């Protein structure tokens, strides 16, 4: 096993011959299948594996991509999963996928997979997108919030200054400078022009991210403040509405009280009127009784005016005159206090007055 290789495996089409499972025989056959000196024997794809995943998860992810490529294009895929180098970036988990350029069937290697050579076929872009989907699904299952986007920053609408690729020599020089700085206990500073350029790009990107985070914080705080202001406004609006309702309720209560007071005043006025009416009835009855008792003109037994008086009233007057003073006072008080008694006596007196008026009119 090569240094740094964590896992290697062959992915073959389902109808591949048995001998293709031998890696050496497979690639020897791939070379023999080509007759041109400049023919491409294999295609190599290097894919980055998420450092957030475990070794098993990274392996299953890489093998899953290789399996799909093999099934879709009918090619053999030789997978090698690499760990980060000892002196390199410890996040650099990656895999190399080496595919045959010809389809592998029961009869061996056949026609070329031209679709993977042509940009207009869209296959390469399709696999970039599919690989991003597979990584994001694995990250989601691992409860990792980060996500991958296969598109360039430009296609995503992200303005970011690109770094310059560092060749092997520049990379080695930067690694040595970093080791020296670590031994001397000082901060590492790039020593090559490319390294210095890339460090500047990273620093500027960090500043932009810092500014963007600050802007996002301001936007978030603005939204929170706006939300609070909205809540305050809603609260004030609710308070105003409550005050309006309370004022309306107070007004309704005041109007109800006013109507009640008016009704009470009318009732009291009616009661006072009824009291006065009962007092007038009692006074008229007392006057008639007094004249009857005194033998005044027109109140004798044989007088026509007295005979015109309703019989019930005559009996009441005579009974009244035959009683003692205390009984008389109680009777008058009863007329004044009891509406039914007053109405009955008043009705009799009214009938007497109508009869007398009629008789006098006829005598004229």
Automatic annotation (TrEMBL):
Pfam families membership = MobA_MobL (PF03389)
Q: Key word Translocase present in the record?
A: no
Q: Which Gene3D superfamilies match?
A: 3.30.930.30
Q: Where is the MobA/MobL protein domain?
A: 1-176
Sorted keywords for this record are: Conjugation
Highest taxon above the source species:
Bacteria
Stated family: Belongs to the MobA/MobL family.
- What's the protein name? Conjugal transfer protein TraA
Q: Which organism is it from?
A: Sphingobium cupriresistens LL01
